[in-house]
Design goal:
- This protein is about 70% helix and about 0% strand.
- The chain is built from two helices and no strands.
- The chain is elongated and about 40 Å long.
- Keywords: Membrane, Transmembrane, Transmembrane helix.
Amino acid sequence: MRMRPPTWLPYLGPPLAGVGAGVVGAWLGGGFWVSLIAALVVGFAPIVAYRLWKRLHHRG
């Protein structure tokens, strides 16, 4: 039996984007554009993971 993806997974994107931008901007000394890129990458990661998991779940 395959596990279904949790429905709350895509909603982790915005909080994780803020954490990613904060870590890169404050702790690692990145500038605005570096922080923005980090926020976009980290923020979209749970959404992309959810969609991939859902697609693989429906294939089987």
